[in-house]
Write the structure tokens for this entry.
Amino acid sequence: MKCRSGGLFAIRVLLLRTALLLCTVALLLCAAPLSAQVKVELHGSVETLQAVPFSQDLRLTDSRNAFTGEISAFAGEAVAFVSLSAEYNGVSPDRTGFALGEAWLDWGAGGFSLRLGRQLVSWGVADGLILTDVVCPQNLTAYAGLDFAGSRLAVDGLKLRYSFPALAIEALWLPLFSPARLPGEHNPLYAVFFPSSVDMGGAAWPAALPVSIQDAAPPRTIADGEYGLRVSWYSSGVDFSAMGFYGWNDIPFMGKELIGGPPIPTGIELLPEYERTITAGADASIPLGEILLRLETAWTGGGRYERPAADTAAALLARQRDEPVKQQRLQALAGIDWNPSGWSLSAQYYEDLLPDAYSGGTERPWRKNGASLRVARSFFRETLTLSVWYYLDLFDFDSVGSVSAEYALTDAVSLSLGSDFFTGGIDGRGSYGAYRDLSCIWLKGIFRF
């Protein structure tokens, strides 16, 4: 999906990111005394992953070969970090190319630190679910063998942090909005995000109209920046954090309009739009003997959710523009972690509520809940690791899971064999059912240096 005036917008983004990178280098040189020794470290990895679906045609659903390089420079109180990646993907051409991962300068003195540039920011204590961890958007162009942490995209901005003995305050300013990365037309995930037709429920003209997608127009100016604040308190009995974030929805919501006619329309146009959102939340980690209890909750205002299909069809039949409705969202999670010798176990219970939709008004039910389980075990002096992760939606009973085995041939080379699987819920309901044809088995190799 391309943006209006996409070329100009891309140039502006490139110029801003280049300016941030140059500022990073310049500040590193200024922050380090001339007599200080600059230490440079180089690290990276080469990775290949091939995924085959469970369907009979055995065509590859993912085929990526990627290189990642990282440069760290240390000079006095300053640290600079840059990561770059290059990928060739034989299945999804939209993922082939070069990308800047992170590029930041961190300078600290006493309890104060400043980080400027392109960076990853991680908030919250949830495992694989998004509650308060809303700063970084997701890369939604891949799925096989890629966990949630690896799908997060860096953001451009400034982070200020001040640490007291038992308290830390962190403030963010992101002058340039970064949306989620959505799949292109040749990506197997494209159909999950963009329908090819909309069912009009037996209208006099064609019941399933083809869909076209208008170019998205994300926020582009510094006035459209995003802001965040997080306060953390630490003690021997509990770690507690509270946060607030004023930003945008990373994934555009879709308005709909009929095109063509009258009397008979020729299709439906999807109109992707971004809107301001605000999130407030808190999390806590409480050690209980050998078990760690994790709690997290978040409230979000400004999110958009699809209206019931019958309401959408009625609006379009009346030649009106259909807009997803604005709803508040309340999420809560409780989880436990236990790490006995050689084992790693984690379990979570999750609630997701749309309080304003209790009496209807959205296609999504007002309440959804689910549970997840992650189990890992190491063998042979931690050279072989077996792991299982499973999430079950307790409303529709659809699910997603993965099973994998990773073997470390050396400290630098590892091989992994795994499977990702998705199941539909009752009567095919649930969001994970849309991924059902993408259930696959994959093989991955990594060389780290």
Observations:
- The chain is about 10% helix and 50% strand.
- Confidence is low (pLDDT under 50) at residues 1-7.
